[in-house]
C-alpha cells in the first residue's frame, strides 16, 4: 500500500501476548512523529484499519492535520486484517476501527461492536477488468477478486453480481488480499476482474485495464466509519465524542473548497498520484463524504438485509443492535 515518503510514517510491530488468537498477527502502527514533551500529555487511542484508502481517508487526514491532538488524543492508526481488528477491539486491544459493513455483520452476530459514525456514505469503488470484457454479464464463468470475504468489497461484489443476474454459483469470487494483491492477480491473469477502491481503480484504468463499473452508482451503503464497543460508549463517552469530533471535522475540512489545494497535495503524497488523478480522486472523495457522521437508518436496514441474504444471520435485527449514532447526533446538534 502506498505510503507517504520521508519521516511522516514510521513502522513498528505490536503483539498482544494476552490473546492467543492474535499472537501471530503483526500490526503495523503508522505513527505521526510525536512533538517533544506534548505526546506524553495525550491519551493514546488505537484505531484499527485494513488499509489506507478512500474509506478511512478522513481518519488519516485528521491525524496528519493535528485534529486528534487538538482533542487531546494521540491516535495510533494500526493496519490489520478486518477480522483480527474486530477481534482485537472486542478484547480491548483496539479502541476503535474504521470499518462499517464489517462492523454491522459482526454486531448482528452478537459480537460487541457498534457503528458510531459513518465517514463515507457510499463507496468510491471500481470494478476493473481485463480487456475483452465489455459488460458485467461477461463475467459469467470467470473469476473476480475482492480483498477479503465479509468485507465491504465482498458485499458490494455480491450486490453488483445480483443486480446483473449473476451469483457466486456462476462467478467465482476469490479473496486476493488487501492492497496490491488484487492488482497483481489481475495483471498476472489469475483473475478476470477485481473490485478496487479509489484511487487504485483509476490507476489500473490508466495502465490499460477497463474500469467497467463505478460501483457507487449501484451500491450506496456506508463505506467507512468509526466503530466502538458498547462498553467503550458507556464507560468513555467523552473519549468517543472527542474521536468523532476530530473525524467529522476532518471530513468537513476536506469538503471545504478553501482547503482543496491542501487536500489534493496530501492525496498526491499519500497515494503517489499525479495532479490529474489526484483531482479526480478528490472529487469522488468529496461526493462520498458524510459531513454529519451519520446516514439514514434505511441504509442501515439495507445493510442488515444484505447480511440476511448472505447467510450471516437468519432474519433482520433492530438497527439499534448494530449502530449507535447518539454521539454523532449530539455533535451535529452543536
Radius of gyration: 19 Å
| CATH level 1 name of the largest domain | Alpha Beta
Separation, N- and C-terminal Cα atoms: 37 Å
**CATH T-level fold name of the largest domain:** D-Maltodextrin-Binding Protein, domain 2
Query: What average pLDDT do the residues reach?
Result: 88
Profile the largest sheet: 5 strands, mixed
Percent helix among the residues? 25-40%
Please give the domain count. 2
Note the beta-strand portion.
15-25%
Q: Under the CATH scheme, which architecture of the largest domain would be assigned? A: 3-Layer(aba) Sandwich
SSE-based structural type: alpha/beta
* Overall 3D form: globular
User: Which strands sit side by side, in order, in the main sheet?
Assistant: 1-2-4-3-5
Name given to the CATH homologous superfamily of the largest domain: Periplasmic binding protein-like II
**How many DSSP E strands?**
12
Helix-strand sequence: EEEHHEHEHEEEHEHEHEEHHHHHH
Q: Count of DSSP helices? A: 13
Low-confidence stretches: 1-38
Amino acid at each position: 500500500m502506498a505510503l507517504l515518503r520521508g519521516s511522516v510514517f514510521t513502522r513498528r510491530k505490536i503483539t498482544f501476548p494476552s490473546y492467543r488468537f492474535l499472537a501471530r498477527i503483526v500490526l503495523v502502527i503508522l505513527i505521526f512523529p510525536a512533538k517533544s514533551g506534548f505526546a506524553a500529555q495525550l491519551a493514546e487511542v488505537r484505531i484499527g484499519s485494513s488499509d489506507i484508502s478512500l474509506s478511512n481517508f478522513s481518519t488519516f487526514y485528521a491525524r496528519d492535520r493535528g485534529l486528534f491532538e487538538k482533542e487531546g488524543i494521540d491516535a495510533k492508526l494500526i493496519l490489520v486484517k478486518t477480522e483480527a481488528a474486530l477481534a482485537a477491539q472486542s478484547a480491548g486491544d483496539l479502541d476503535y476501527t474504521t470499518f462499517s459493513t464489517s462492523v454491522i455483520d459482526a454486531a448482528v452476530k452478537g459480537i460487541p461492536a457498534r457503528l458510531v459514525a459513518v465517514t463515507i456514505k457510499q463507496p468510491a469503488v471500481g470494478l476493473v477488468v481485463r480487456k475483452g470484457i465489455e459488460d458485467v454479464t461477461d463475467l459469467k464463468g470467470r473469476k473476480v477478486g475482492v480483498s477479503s470475504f465479509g468485507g465491504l468489497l465482498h458485499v458490494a461484489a455480491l450486490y453488483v453480481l445480483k443486480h446483473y443476474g449473476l451469483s457466486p454459483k456462476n462467478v467465482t469470487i476469490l479473496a486476493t488480499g488487501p492492497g496490491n494483491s488484487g492488482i497483481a492477480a489481475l495483471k498476472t491473469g489469475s483473475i478476470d476482474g477485481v473490485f478496487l477502491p479509489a484511487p487504485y481503480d483509476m490507476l489500473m484504468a490508466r495502465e490499460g485495464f477497463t474500469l467497467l463499473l463505478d460501483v457507487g452508482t449501484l451500491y450506496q451503503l456506508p463505506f467507512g466509519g468509526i466503530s466502538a464497543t458498547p462498553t467503550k460508549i458507556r464507560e468513555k463517552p467523552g473519549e468517543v465524542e472527542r474521536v468523532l469530533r476530530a473525524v467529522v471535522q476532518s471530513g468537513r475540512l476536506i469538503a471545504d473548497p478553501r482547503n482543496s489545494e491542501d487536500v489534493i497535495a496530501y492525496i498526491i503524497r499519500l497515494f503517489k498520484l499525479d495532479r490529474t488523478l489526484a483531482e479526480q480522486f478528490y472529487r469522488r472523495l468529496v461526493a462520498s463524504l458524510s459531513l454529519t457522521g451519520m446516514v439514514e437508518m434505511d441504509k442501515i436496514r439495507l445493510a442488515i438485509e444484505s447480511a440476511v441474504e448472505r447467510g450471516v444471520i437468519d432474519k433482520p435485527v433492530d438497527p439499534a443492535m448494530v449502530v449507535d449514532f447518539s454521539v454523532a447526533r449530539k455533535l451535529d446538534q452543536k
